[in-house]
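> @MW can you paste both from yesterday?
MW: sure, first one:
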Amino acid sequence: MDINSQTAFVALGSNLAAGQTTPAEMLKNALQLMEDYHDSPIEVSDFVSSPAFPPNSGPDFVNAVASLRTDWPAERLLELLHQIEAELGRTRPARWAPRVVDLDLLAVGKLVLPDAATHDQWRALAPDRQRSEAPDRLILPHPRLQDRAFVLVPWAQIAPDWRHPRTGMTVARMRDALPAADRDAVRPFDGGGI
């Protein structure tokens, strides 16, 4: 690993079985492929269960957050995540539809992509526009991470002190700023982690 390597964070989610493969097994498979293809140890939060978003849009999700050290460009890491999703049977019929696997690149070190102004624009996108509008390029940190308890609750287990390069807020502080009902909806997964 290059001395200039950074820590990358990936959100994992699944709420559909693929044949006999349960959502939790799907996350385990995705983690194994990440480790195999990237050839780097991965730290993983506990698995959690969370309601689908938007409400009533599908079965509950199994979620986790993983971290790995990388010297890869962020775009290459995102390509790897998309490759793994495809290998595991991910299709993209509609935005926020139920899925067998979802791998979101949350952050790579303190990198802001493509630039601060564009990032700030997407981070501030009104909720009613989020359903229909998606960026045509990689935005880092993920522009919705501060809104998602299913990301922040498990992320706080492995990196509570990671600080958002645009807002200055830590993962723990972003988690604690969410409504209590959102945090409470993220429950320990009764099938365990890995």
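MW: second:
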Amino acid sequence: MPQPPRPRPTFPVTLSRPPAAAAPVGGRGRPAAAPPVSGPPSMASDAVRARMVQRLAAQGIADERVLRALAAVPRHAFVDGALAAQAYEDTSLPIGLAQTISKPSVVARMIELLLAAPALADQPQARLGRVLEIGTGCGYQAAVLAQVAREVYSIERLRGLHEKARTNLRPLRLPTVHLLLGDGMQGYAVGGPYAGIISAAGGAELPATWLDQLAVGGRIVAPVQSGNTGQALVIIDKTNRGIERRLLEAVNFVPLKSGIA
């Protein structure tokens, strides 16, 4: 059987030396400074983004790392200009190719769950180690993840969205974000093992490759099929005792698909 093509890193190219044999799930002490977001002047005022963050906090997002991350990333820079006025509303928006940018509350919830892995329980200010994102989309969640993780590998199967994410992220100058064009169901073993894996698409089950590429102490946050029609968030913790799985609230994501298109 022919092997599927390996994902191809295209931006930024920072894979000249191989990753270490293991990735730390979290760091000790205070986190290192997040990569600066230094894009062009915002169309929306900082006050508008601050109000979005305040609403998220009122809805129950309590992790200061997550709130700071969403406050730092200009969401309007990841949507079409005609939709910029809606960028800080808690709504998903079209980004082309029948895909959407997730609601800010969904991004915040999933990243907060990622940071709540048991290995980080006694490190409330720690940054994650390496994170693998399945489904780059327009690049927004990758930019947010860059504020809370030491390194982000983000893989997208749709060439048009991969190119859009490159364009959107380039002005932000985030050297710890690596964009990959490839089949997300295969993961990206070269960058692993990962402290966290987060998916923006859901299937009937999680691919076994993700579990293989997850570090002991790491966590997966992803949607999976629940019942006959809906999806629910699932968290998977990989411990020394084995795999622990917990099903959470209903969500609605695009289907998880294989191949490159």
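> thanks! The longest strand covers residues 214-226.
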